[in-house]
Design brief:
Layout lengths: L16 H6 L1 H13 L5 H18 L5 E3 L6 E3 L7 H6 L1 H18 L6 H13 L1 H5 L2
Antiparallel strand pairs: 1-2
Helix pairs in contact: 2-3, 3-5
Length: 135
């Protein structure tokens, strides 16, 4: 099953209506993807979904975290290292970041991240990708 929204361009498939209803990330992106008329490329789409989730959690003051062994404080995405100053020093990396930023500009609408915020977001994803993919 696809998203029931008639103008939805997301090509994700769902096994049931319950799965469609439980896809929080698609709920955040559906109207934007429909307005733009296409989904971004895979990596840019992942970055976009991460930004949407972080933006919503921050706006709603509902930042989700996870317990880290040996720590009393829950860790959230904002706690991840980003090494943005190092990323900015590498021309090839910056070209890659700029390519994703330009691709996503039309998806971010008026409340999207600045380039500096995007570099930090990108850094948190690529520096910590092993953490984002683990269970």
């Amino acid at each position: 099953r696809k998203c029931p929204r008639e103008d939805c361009v997301y090509d994700g498939r769902y096994c049931s209506i319950q799965c469609i209803d439980s896809d929080r990330q698609h709920q955040l992106e559906c109207s934007i993807l429909s307005m733009v008329g296409e989904a971004p490329s895979d990596i840019s789409h992942f970055i976009f979904r991460t930004w949407l989730t972080q933006n919503k959690e921050s706006r709603d003051n509902e930042v989700r975290g996870e317990q880290v062994p040996g720590s009393k404080k829950e860790r959230c995405f904002q706690d991840f290292l980003h090494h943005s100053s190092d990323l900015k020093q590498n021309k090839k990396t910056m070209n890659n970041i700029l390519q994703h930023f330009r691709e996503l500009e039309e998806y971010f609408l008026e409340d999207g991240p600045t380039l500096e915020e995007f570099i930090i977001l990108y850094g948190r994803i690529v520096i910590n990708d092993f953490e984002l993919c683990d269970g």
